[in-house]
Design a protein that fits this description.
It is a single chain. The protein has 201 residues and is an alpha/beta fold. It has a single domain (2-185), classed as 3-Layer(aba) Sandwich (Rossmann fold). 33% of the residues lie in helices and 9% in strands. The protein contains 5 helices and 5 strands. The protein has helices at 9-20, 42-50, 69-87, 130-146, 176-185; strands spanning 2-4, 26-27, 55-58, 94-98, 156-160. Strand 1 (2-4), helix 1 (9-20) and strand 2 (26-27) form a beta-alpha-beta unit. The chain is globular and about 55 Å long. 26% of the residues are buried. The mean pLDDT is 86. InterPro entries: Epimerase_deHydtase, NAD(P)-bd_dom_sf, NAD(P)_dehydrat-like. GO terms for molecular function: oxidoreductase activity, acting on the CH-OH group of donors, NAD or NADP as acceptor.
């Protein structure tokens, strides 16, 4: 199993559970000495990493606390690199993408709704932030590309849309959701806790 972004908060839990279940795991990570350094050639690295793998968990995706327009491009390109490589790697049977609920329920009126796979975030709403746009556009691009592949000779595709993810840290690096929780608990950042409700995984 290949896990992209294997040093990330969610991906580390995926790696841990896969190993416990007896799978052999490969992971893609950034340069330890320079976390901001980009891969020299994503396609080359993915081809080498994916070769011989039956399953791919694409967990890597940017989640800056404040997302700019580059977040959208990075997320879409990252997802497409994974899918294009999987399409040319004969061993790959299934790809699982970790998306987000914000690819589904953002930008709609606040009245009560039941969201399912037919719903997409309303990208025409100017209030939709770049992180939600990155997740929505990545998933839309993924399904569009997957539907162009030969139905008789393509990998299976699953997309997960979790809500706010919290839980134990498996590294000493704080990631997106852990940072947000930490800020609510740190009175130096927020002087009060707002009355909010959010789904939690």
């Amino acid at each position: 199993v290949l896990v992209t972004g294997a040093s990330g908060y969610v991906a580390l839990h995926c790696v841990q559970q896969l190993l416990a279940a007896g799978f052999t795991v490969r992971g893609t990570v950034r340069d330890k000495s320079n976390r901001k350094k980009d891969w020299p050639s994503p396609s080359t690295i993915l081809i080498r990493a994916m070769d011989g793998c039956s399953f791919v968990l694409h967990v890597a995706s940017p989640w800056p606390i404040v997302a700019d327009e580059s977040t959208v491009q990075t997320a879409v390109e990252g997802t497409m690199n994974v899918l294009r490589t999987a399409a040319t790697t004969s061993s790959v049977k299934k790809v699982v993408i970790t998306s987000s609920c914000v690819a589904v329920n953002d930008g709609h009126r606040s009245d009560s709704k039941v969201f399912d796979e037919r719903w997409w975030t309303n990208l025409d709403n100017p209030r939709v932030e770049n992180y939600a746009r990155s997740k929505t556009m990545s998933e839309l691009a993924a399904w569009k590309y997957w539907n162009t592949l030969d139905h008789n000779n393509r990998f299976a595709l699953t997309v997960l849309n979790p809500t706010f993810i919290v839980g134990p840290l498996l590294s000493n690096v704080r990631h997106g959701s852990a940072i947000i929780v930490g800020r609510f608990m740190d009175y130096r950042t927020y002087l009060a806790t707002p009355k909010v409700s959010v789904g939690i995984v």
